[in-house]
Amino acid sequence: MAKTIEEIKDRLASLSLSESEALLTEFLEEQPKSAEGHFLLGNLFRKQELWDRALNEYLVAMDLDPSSPAAAAYEMSQRILNFYDHNRYNQ
Question: Whole-model pTM?
Fold first, then answer.
């Protein structure tokens, strides 16, 4: 088990999505107040298009650290989910 968030970030690139999720989940069980850990888990869920789980992780990260990049990720995810192309759907 990686002990620091830097070790986690180094390992994520070489792991599958399921392995990355397991690693981050285990890390967050030991370090539940890691805003960066919740942000990374949110990014992982976003990559899998698990939007509700991603948004929840971003909210936790923002609660722990209001200056977290999770705020921008949350807003971007909301924009993606709320996108509606009138030209495509109202013909």
Answer: 0.86
The C-alpha atoms of residue 10 and residue 13 are separated, in whole angstroms, by: 7
pLDDT tens column, 11-60? 998 999 999 999 999 999 999 999 999 999 999 999 999 999 999 999 99
Domains and CATH numbers, the chain: 5-82 (1.25.40.10)
Nearest to 50 by CA among 21, 27, 22, 24: 21
Integer angstrom CA distances of residue 2 from 11, 22, 62, 80 = 8, 12, 23, 33
